[in-house]
Structure formats: C-alpha cells, structure tokens
Predict the 3D structure of the following.
Amino acid sequence: MTMRTFSAAGLVLCLAASSCSGAAETTTSARPSLRLSRNTANDLQAALARIPDIKAQVVTEGGSSITSLLDLQNGKTDISGTLADVAYLAYAGQLEEMTEPFEQLRGMAVTGLNTMHLLVRSDTRVETIRDLKGLRVSLGAPGSSTAHITQRMLHDLGITNAQTRAERIPNAEIVSRLTKGDIEAAVSGFGVGSATVIAA
C-alpha cells in the first residue's frame, strides 16, 4: 500500500459556556472543579498538573470529536480536545446529522495539527484526490470527524457521493480491508506515527 499526506486540520481545545463547575465548592474555598473526559484528561495531564488552583475531574469516557462536542454542548464537560473543522461545523449548525448550532461552545485554542492520510493499495493508480472517482473508498469511520472532513473536502472538489463507492469503515478494520482488496483506498485522520498508518 502507498500513503499520501494530503491535508491537515487543527486540533483544538474547546471550552463550554461555563468554564468550571461546582459553585458550592468555590463558596467554601475549595478548588473549583474542571470537568473533562478521560481522553482529554490524558492529553492534558502534564498541563493540568501545573495549575494548582484547578481540580480536574473526569466525568465521561469521551471518544470522537463529535462525542466530545456533544458532552460540551450538553453541559457534561467544561473543556475538550477536538478537531477545529468539526468544532466549527458544530458551532455553525452544519453537521449533517445534527443541524442545530452548538451554541454552548466558546473559546478555542489550537494545540497541534492532525494529519489526514490517504492510504491506497499499491496496485491502484491514484495521483490526486480526484482519482478516487469510481473507486471503493473508506471515507472515515462512522460518526467520526474524519468522515465529516472528508465529505466536505470531496464536495469542495466537485466529487459527489455517486462518483465514489464510499464506505464508512471503523479505523481498526482499515488495514485488513485494504489488504484483502475489499476497498482500494481509505482516508485516515491520525497523527504522524499512528500505528494504523505505519501498518498500512
């Protein structure tokens, strides 16, 4: 299989409208509690350890960018890591399956880049994104940020759903499906050094 890196999306920290919970705690001079998901806690562990006045509390397991944004919107968490593209679409009410604006999202800070990879079978000739027309392609896992970003990218390039045999394949199955020839290409939204990308 061959790999091409063709796009990058900002990884951001999003804040909810109310930045900290536990009003009762603050009135009794206890440290305010910052609610976050387990995956965000892991990402921010070193930074949070340097803030003595804030108590980090894991309240959800987290998951994809969409899951993280839903937790913020519904008031379950105060801060989360997600892809900038998806955060913007959610705030603007442009997510396909959720058209109501996520009006509870507030501040954002870019913390890094998330690289988009195009994985292609070695016996398939693909030089540009437009060469995906007519191919069996995984455009990202179901409900993932990659799926949303890829769909928008193809639309901007004038490639319709009818012009590709698109599938939504879980990340764990990408390599095996490519190897078996079930699909001819796949878009992967992992950072550089990802085990999935290296295996491909």
